[in-house]
TrEMBL record, chain A:
The reaction(s) this protein catalyses: malonyl-[ACP] + acetyl-CoA + H(+) = 3-oxobutanoyl-[ACP] + CO2 + CoA
GO molecular function terms noted in the UniProt entry: 3-oxoacyl-[acyl-carrier-protein] synthase activity; beta-ketoacyl-acyl-carrier-protein synthase III activity
Gene Ontology cellular component terms for the protein in this record: cytoplasm
Protein name: Beta-ketoacyl-[acyl-carrier-protein] synthase III
Gene symbol of the encoding locus: fabH
Chief localisation class: cytoplasm
TrEMBL record, chain B:
InterPro entries registered for this protein in UniProt: ACP (IPR003231), ACP-like_sf (IPR036736), PP-bd_ACP (IPR009081)
Post-translational note: 4'-phosphopantetheine is transferred from CoA to a specific serine of apo-ACP by AcpS. This modification is essential for activity because fatty acids are bound in thioester linkage to the sulfhydryl of the prosthetic group.
Protein name, per record: Acyl carrier protein
Coiled-coil residues: none
Keyword terms of this UniProt record: Cytoplasm, Fatty acid biosynthesis, Fatty acid metabolism, Lipid biosynthesis, Lipid metabolism, Phosphopantetheine, Phosphoprotein
BP GO annotations: lipid A biosynthetic process
GO cellular component: cytosol; membrane
Length: 318, 79
């Protein structure tokens, strides 16, 4: 037995993102439910979010984001041999999204599977992609986080409807002469499985806000610090901290406890809402576009969500 | 020796000031968190977490919702 062409490291080659066209502001929501702009901004930090049209699916958004990342990487579809879609909001369970997304992008017969680690999904998928490249199972991996939360939200439940949104972000992962994606620190807290859940096939997404808030603001900064430590990177060396865009108050509390003083902290939630597995690549891609992060910068990504699940790793910006 | 009610009140006032910006002098036993101090449910979680660090008493979420006034928290922490 042998393992061919093991790469010493893996790296992100490019990012891409897609957001649906429709912008829904807080004032728009206030017209149909008992809420207002001040209430939403003070609780979750969101000013507006993007919502997909009725005919626009998770797969549609994944194709858009994945296509942009692929184009930005300079690779052709034929170079990609593994496609991973992180999502928890498909309209149906069968088939998975990855195979049809790959097909629509012209990627012929790649390995294709979905990852459901909810809002931590992108970090799980990125770790899996990095391991596949370093282990010789794949050469180039297209990793996509894509979500249509709007189809699982009760639009009369203001505790949930003001938070969640739709979108997609993607990264192309390939071999590298040295590690440019750090070791993942991942885990779960299955005792809190009820904190964020769709309880049956007729239900909507429910969230125990206080439970999630307490967990996120107390349990996750050690995970973030451990990811830095395992990558051999001091938090002071980070140019960016990109946590899952769950809630601005959670983001700012974790950032404060992490103490990455020079890092720009992603606040994409203000204009994009909480897009679950899409939020980290969406935020990173938009930060790159705006010039807030540059090639060679070190960024810490931290995903966390339903399960409860979490994962973090340090990556170098392509 | 356990902290006195005055010491817990002073500590709670400091915590609430750090989290919400409300002057510690306004944190008096009869005040309602929601009606008088305008503190929202997420800030209450932050206060509970900080109070646990300060006083070593855990205030679980299912108990937290029953603590309506500053006095309720003082009583809870004193056990």
């Amino acid at each position: 037995m042998r393992i061919p062409d093991i790469a010493p490291g893996a790296k992100v080659l490019a990012f891409g993102h897609y957001q649906p066209a429709t912008v829904v502001t807080n004032d728009d929501l206030a017209k149909t439910m008992d809420t207002n702009d001040e209430w939403i901004q003070s609780r979750v930090g969101i000013k507006e979010r993007r919502i997909a049209s009725a005919g626009e699916s998770v797969e549609d958004m994944a194709v858009q984001a994945g296509g942009k990342a692929l184009a930005a990487s300079g690779l052709s579809p034929a170079d990609v041999d593994l496609v991973i879609v992180a999502t928890c909001t498909l309209e149906t369970q069968i088939p998975n999204a990855a195979a049809v997304v790959a097909h629509r992008l012209g990627i012929t017969s790649p390995g294709a599977f979905d990852v459901n680690a909810a809002c931590a999904g992108f970090c799980y998928a990125l770790a899996t992609a990095s391991a596949a490249v370093r282990g010789g199972s794949a050469r180039h991996v297209l990793v996509i986080g894509a979500e249509k939360l709007s189809q699982w939200v009760d639009w009369t439940d203001r505790s949930v409807a003001v938070i969640f949104a739709d979108g997609a972000g993607a990264a192309v992962v390939g071999p590298s002469d040295e590690p440019r994606i750090g070791p993942v620190v991942w885990g779960s807290a299955g005792d809190k499985f009820e904190a964020i859940a769709i309880r049956d096939r007729h239900d909507f997404l429910r969230q125990e806000g206080q439970t999630v808030f307490r967990w996120a603001t107390t349990a996750l900064h050690p995970v973030a610090k451990e990811a830095c430590e395992r990558a051999g990177v001091d938090p002071s060396e980070l140019a960016a901290f990109v946590p899952h865009q769950a809630n601005l108050r959670i983001i700012e509390t974790i950032a404060r406890k992490l103490g990455a003083d020079k890092a720009v902290v992603a606040r994409d939630i203000v204009h994009a809402g909480n897009t679950s597995a899409a939020s980290i690549p969406l935020a990173l891609s938009r930060m790159l576009e705006r010039g807030e992060v540059r090639t060679g910068d070190l960024a810490l990504v931290l995903g966390f969500g339903a399960g409860l699940t979490y994962a973090a790793q340090v990556i170098e910006i392509p | 020796m356990a902290a006195t009610e005055q010491e817990i009140l002073a500590g709670l006032g400091k915590i609430i000031n750090e989290i919400t910006g409300i002057p510690a002098s306004e944190v008096t036993p009869e005040k309602s968190f929601v009606d008088d101090l305008d503190i929202d449910s997420l800030s209450m979680v932050e206060i509970a977490v900080a109070a646990q660090d300060e006083f070593g008493v855990e205030i679980p979420d299912d108990q937290l919702k029953n603590l309506k006034t500053v006095k309720d928290v003082l009583t809870f922490i004193q056990g």
